[in-house]
Amino acid sequence: MRKTATTVMTSTLVGALLAAGTAHADRDDWPESFTMGTASQGGTYYVYGSGWANMIADELDISGGGEVTGGPVQNLALVHEGDVAFGMTTMGPAAEAEAGESDLAPGMPLDNACAMFPMYETPFSITALSDSDITSISEIPDGASIGFGPSGSTSDTYFPEILETLGVDFERQNGGWNDLGGQLQDGLIDVIAFAAGIPIPAVSQLEVQTDVNIIEFTEEEQQKVLEEFPVSEFMIPADTYETLEEDARAVSMWNFAIAGCDLPEDFVYEVTRITMENNDKMRDIHRSAEFTVPENVKYNEVLPFHPGAARWFNENGYDIDDDMIR
């Protein structure tokens, strides 16, 4: 019996050592560290992306973190060039980048950025101070100074065109969300046009410091925007902000995490697995991560998937067609 027990223990130990050796071998081509391109501080991308990077770094025991960037458009370029391993983007800028129509690289397809996993929808919403008496889009005065977020962000790319389509005349301002929130509170700008996952930290902070109006689209305005832009219907739940008394009508665009297409397949597989199998930890990072679930993978019809990410989804019953895999 002692001999049998010893044999079993020895076999178990050898098996464990072999498994450990295999795991180590599988990581030989992994990067020693990684960076996730986010956006400006005060926006959802920064909170979500930095928290995600810290979680992945802890789970995989490698160095990683978030980096402040100009947002979705710049993230596509940074990932394409290999300046960051991962990034976050929305489907509108992604389609333009694939077609070689990115403002940062006109005429050059940014095709080395692959889809990894779904994040959440980005609603387009408008905030003004309550004492401005702006309670609707049609009440925004001609020549109003409107902050559209960082240059090249989803908001800056699409919201000016959306408001122009709705007949708004404005002066365009750019800046980080926290900075624009301070300018709004100080009366330096009249309105902020946000495109970010909710709740937007800068809006929540404004609510604590002053009275604000969160302005919704009318049904007619929403329909007109749906006809002209790559967005979907969306309702901002009333419990998102203290200011809201009922759901607010908006439009939205899906966000996906992206990875350099040349990153090792096993590395991206593990990153995807950890993200998709730990939604409770993701929700602890940011409330919007309740939508960071496998079934939402279907909302990417633009970017090809990284083979490592596609392998995890296909293994778990979320089929990705071969022509959507790089």
TrEMBL record:
Keywords from the UniProt entry: Signal
PANTHER family: SLL1037 PROTEIN
Domain of life: Bacteria
Organism field: Aidingimonas halophila
CDD domains per record: PBP2_TAXI_TRAP_like_2
Annotated signal peptide: 1-25
Claim: Glycoprotein is one of the keywords in the record: no
Pfam families: NMT1_3
Protein name as it appears in the record: TRAP transporter solute receptor, TAXI family
